[in-house]
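Components:
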Amino acid sequence: MNSAANAKLQFRVLYRQFLFRVVDLEILSADALGDANKLLGQFAALLILVSIIWSFGAFGIIGANNMPPETRASLTLFMTHFLVATTMLVVGIFAVLSWDSIFPDRRDVLVLAPLPVRPRTMFLAKVAATGTALSLVVVLLNCATGLAWPFALAVPVTAPLGFLRSLAAYWFTMFAAGIFIYCAVLALQGLAAQFLPRHLFLRASGFLQMAAFCLFVCAYFLEPPVDGLKMLTAPQNRHLLACLPSYWFFGLFHQLNGSMHPVLAPLARRAWIGLTIAGLAAAAAYALSYMRTMRQIVEAPDIAPGSRGLRWLPRFGDSLQTAIVQFCIRTLARSRQHRLILAFYLGIGLAFTISLLQFLASAPQPPGSVAINAWHQANVPLLTATIMMTVLAVLGARVVFALPLELRANWIFRAVGMHDAGKILIASRRALLLISIVPVWLVSAAACFWLWPWRQAAAHLAVLALIGIILADLCLWGFRKIPFTCSYLPGKSQVHIVIIAVVVLLMLVAQSVIFEQQALQRPAIMAVVLVLLGTVAIGIRWHIHALAKSDEEELRFEEIDPAALVELGLSSNKS
Amino acid sequence: MLELLRVCKRFKNISAVDDVSFFARPGEITGYLGPNGSGKSTTIKMITGLMQTTSGKIFFQGEPIERDLIAYKQRLGYVPEEPYLYSHLSGLEYLTMVGQLRNLPVKSTVDRIDGLLRLFSLHPSRHVAIASYSKGMRQKILLSAALLHNPDLLVLDEPFSGLDVGTGLVLRSLIQELAARGKVVLFSSHELETVERLCSHVVILNRGKIAADDSIERLRALMALPTLEGIFSQLAVEQDTAAISREIADLIHA
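Structure:
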């Protein structure tokens, strides 16, 4: 085989390897390697579902012949910006989640470096795999909106050429916005790898990843929506529009669509400049990283928490419980993958919190209520925010508990012979409370006591603590594992159902906090609520412990049980 | 005493361990040998309780181990062949965790860990993550974890792997010392010279079945062979090693 054909073959092999290594196969259940595809399928289904739901709005605009032109213009402007900003957010989250696979890691280098694979082939395969994954995210998110909204946004609405132009403008803008965000992340990571020594970069990389995640979520939820031309032309918004990239690409769409208002021209120009700079910076960072980072990876060991880490931890019960809780805390403190997943859940909570607080800040004061500031009384947005943060923190912690770290090292837990299911459950519960509820509760306590009268703050914090305890117990119902030690079955997590359940839960919480707000004004009712919640918490805990003690089931270290029946491998020969 | 009685393990329709019976007595170091794929590691996993037998029984001190697996594991020290460790923990943290999981008294465990880390020359690196340890350092951590609770039964699967010469000599004496103090030691290795020096009794496994189970002296006498290597080659190596090596050399030369 000649060298060009060989390189082509190597490229194909590496491309497949890089593209499908989204889920770390080392954490999967031994019999569940195909299950990773199920998880990816669930994410894809979720993006398609979201796209279909958002496309209904376009049909509403197309069908509403009597809609006043101003309303139609406001709605189309709002949706264009919303779709651009959402595409940028989703691509940003994708870039953050695939942070470690953007550049070759130690495993790539150590496996591939001894082989006769040219760095260029590896480089191209990585770029192609990344490009494919990025395109898939953009296409899935816009699969329905990308067909429906160009109809509504076309100028003029009925002409076929107008639709085709709008369609091309829409897809070009979405891809350009996605590429801009992805390249910006890539450039940030690549340049950090160039300017920092390897060991420092490995440490900083985790913080950069978290910072990028927070930036994307906060920018998305804090940037004001485009609710009409007035917002775009207001002088006080000029600086904001110039600074936030989602407005640049919003301008770019209207430029390409032929529907550009003069105020959008500088924004469209910024989009072109930004795209060029991000693309060039990413290309430079990528090329430099391939030339220099690969050598650094071979020469320096990967991240090693140094001597100044989290060394001392208090006892958390007896020695078995202490061992498990300390193991959980150290694992979460040192595993970037686990931290990021927990941050994803906290990020959603933070997004809700920001939106709710924005709502509170922008809510008009009722006439004659000058003396009573909405912030300084128990209010629905802050009540909802604290409860949602608690719920999402518990859910996130429970999800990361199910993901193992160094799966094959769990032999030590199997070999030492642990038998007391009740104690192990208590330890898992303590770890869950410490990791999720305690931090959220402390932050909530600081905010509530600072803003509200102390009685209201104390009562709400008691409610919050009880809700957290109940949730933690419910999350550990039937949990027969030691956190971070059991193999993972990604498809079992039913991520799309979880997200829908969270949305339903949000609605329930929104309803219940209205009642809580009223109860906070009446101590007698609040006392009854606390007694009820306390009784539920005690009842659930008692039931879970009784279940754990009576349960004959052993601790699980594999998500899939070995087959109860042994296959004999016999088959009938029909011939 | 550790006793295996007609132990079998089948995976689907493949028999990995077939009717294996032998004793490992206190005060004696039992060598457990076999070529790759002979069922050695599977037997060790069954002895350590990580895997269940398909049929047959394993006894320790006369009791079937599955009767009280937890109590049995409290008396077992195990060094696995592969150094799988939680590499995000430091050596000290890992050993502390093992001590806590075994419910050992805090004060004496701290002293014991400190002593083991010093004696294995790991003390300066005790706060460094295991991820950056060399293979030999990881092996020392595994050994320390296996010895921490003063076990009655020691199952050592390739314990010399990656150790430097000095530590290897220390470990060899240590195994002898522990056996002399009445521990049951089951020692599995591919290094036949080490096995010959350490063990008084060997069990040789081939294709999942026992090929020999006797003292090295008696095997030498019975088979009229001077070394354990000769005995092992005769009982467990079914290939013509010289012919294969010639063939490999020819193949890469072609």
